[in-house]
Amino acid sequence: MSQNPACFPRCCRLLSAASYKRVFKRPNRSADDFFTILWRSNEQELGRLGIAIAKKNIRRAVDRNLVKRVIRESFRHQHNRLKGIDTVVLSRRGVPLHDKKQLRESLDRLWLHVARSLKTDEVSSIGCGRKK
Q: Range of 99's domain?
């Protein structure tokens, strides 16, 4: 049985507390008014996603679930740019729950920033090994 390409498989998720702790310990950060994305490189080919939505920031469960769905969908579309990193998305207060388009645009800008940071890190690590 083949897997649906539109699904979000287990291999692309942060599943254990240890995985989350590893990202929280020494993360790179990218943030805007609605979300903070923490990321750290992993030893795998795939990018993995973790979501931490606080009840303090989004009270109703139905609203938290909506935000999680938007985050997962956004990550799924940007997944090819985010290989080899573990990411955790945190929500902030004031997330516009009535406007999914605004949420998606915010996340897409943050994913682009993360992807650019990854490319910069690759270039700088390649440059460090050169002999003069």
A: 10-126
